[in-house]
Amino acid sequence: xxxxxxxxxxxxxxxxxxxxxxxxxxxxxxxxxxxxxxxxxxxxxxxxxxxxxxxxxxxxxxxxxxxxxxxxxxxxxxxxxxxxxxxxxxxxxxxxxxxxxxxxxxxxxxxxxxxxxxxxxxxxxxxxxxxxxxxxxxxxxxxxxxxxxxxxxxxxxxxxxxxxxxxxxxxxxxxxxxxxxxxxxxxxxxxxxxxxxxxxxxxxxxxxxxxxxxxxxxxxxxxxxxxxxxxxxxxxxxxxxxxxxxxxxxxxxxxxxxxxxxxxxxxxxxxxxxxxxxxxxxxxxxxxxxxxxxxxxx
Amino acid sequence: xxxxxxxxxxxxxxxxxxxxxxxxxxxxxxxxxxxxxxxxxxxxxxxxxxxxxxxxxxxxxxxxxxxxxxxxxxxxxxxxxxxxxxxxxxxxxxxxxxxxxxxxxxxxxxxxxxxxxxxxxxxxxxxxxxxxxxxxxxxxxxxxxxxxxxxxxxxxxxxxxxxxxxxxxxxxxxxxxxxxxxxxxxxxxxxxxxxxxxxxxxxxxxxxxxxxxxxxxxxxxxxxxxxxxxxxxxxxxxxxxxxxxxxxxxxxxxxxxxxxxxxxxxxxxxxxxxxxxxxxxxxxxxxxxxxxxxxxxxxxxxxxxxxxxxxxxxxxxxxxxxxxxxxx
Lengths: 298, 328
Hints:
The complex is a heterodimer. By secondary structure, chain A is an all-alpha fold. Chain A is built from ten helices and no strands. Chain A has two domains: 2-64; 72-297, MetI-like fold (Orthogonal Bundle). Chain A has helices at residues 2-61, 67-71, 85-116, 120-134, 137-152, 157-182, 185-193, 198-226, 253-262, 266-297. Chain A is flat and about 105 Å long. The model of chain A has no long low-confidence stretch (mean pLDDT 86). The radius of gyration of chain B is 29 Å and the shape is flat. By secondary structure, chain B is mainly alpha-helical.
């Protein structure tokens, strides 16, 4: 009797284990499928807004896109047409000033970090460059305001350029350093073996080999600067008129988009879309240009 | 004989001189090169210090007047010149937190798909798309927010939420469209590429031996992913914090959709304010010294918060990299 009960118990338990195992397997499998499809779903959800944004920028942007937009000035409210010639040239001037200040600092600082930077000062600078890249662009604008606008007593393209330069520096510094570090050590040794001084080796051989990567970093920095609005709001300010003077307020595409988007006039809102389309096209052209330039040379 | 020796000495001497000069000049060249590049590196160093110092000096007036009260006072009244940053700090933190609530799970899902599941032909275009997303200027996001997202929220999403979940404190009030919810959504779209691309790199750097070991024990693909995730916890945390840093400092898109009112309200429909949008809206209008000084103090707080977050994020990512660098 006792034995029978015992056997029965064992059988029951074994069966339960088998059933449990089977259930467990089904559970694991289904969790697997559910979770894997969830990851795919998140990709789909992530891509949708992007397509949305592209669709609207392109479809709405084309309504006002014509030659006039590039060569004529903004018109007062109520008048048809008009363009953003001053904003387009202003964006180029701002990028030019920013690049003229920011690129040398970034490139040379990057060279220092790669060539001589294996010390405490080097790692501090590296760390600070990383910190700098995380600082919000509006804070950079405030700093440019206190450094440039307050002493000069008026808004200017130069102040906007300084703000953009500060934003460019960390990207350029870090990519320059990384690209120089990627150059094989044998290049440097070959240069030194020929009796070329270290500075010449670094400038002529190393920098030339790393140039492609550095140019990519520069392009990234410029493209980012071209899309910046926040630091320009109270440095370059914006200008409704034609101006190419460095020490006067200057117009830029991004500030125009901001102003026109907020305005209650439908026409201006439409023009903001066109300006966005031009801005995105500009950024894409910058990156394409650099890619072609760097590709054909090497 | 003597002549010969003299000549020899002379040759030797000049040769020596020439060589030593060239060596010396090379050394001077190197010296100048080093000092020159060091100067520019020092400029980067100086820049961060100057930034902090300038903002401290600029906000001295407001710091002296309000002290720590600035952080906890919820009145922002330019007319009576009473400035408290609490609504702006609240808005900044809540909008960023909500944005992360959406974009961390999504970004992680994208990262998992890209690193563990996607076939090669799909991975490249998807990475390209995320890069594009990161390259769109924030003012264009804002434009899209004003004319597409806000009407959508006003006419469809917010009335729906109000109708079905209206008794919750989060979905109270009139559905303007402009408000906390729009800001959180647009921020989450902007932060997503950062989180997903860094997380993908983190997941990819977990050694394959981990995956193979799990597979050999009969794990399903998801169980393998769970192990990979467990191994890259600190890296993913770092990626999320970098996203948080970006969300906190994001200005234009948020300013354009958040409604810009210094208001502390639990409802997601209500307009709010962030530190960055206060600066963007009011900086050029600052009429008095105290007003300007308070605005600069806001910038200083923003500066401090983003530095702390970025440093912490880098420490997390760095500790993750260090962990696997020995395993290979």
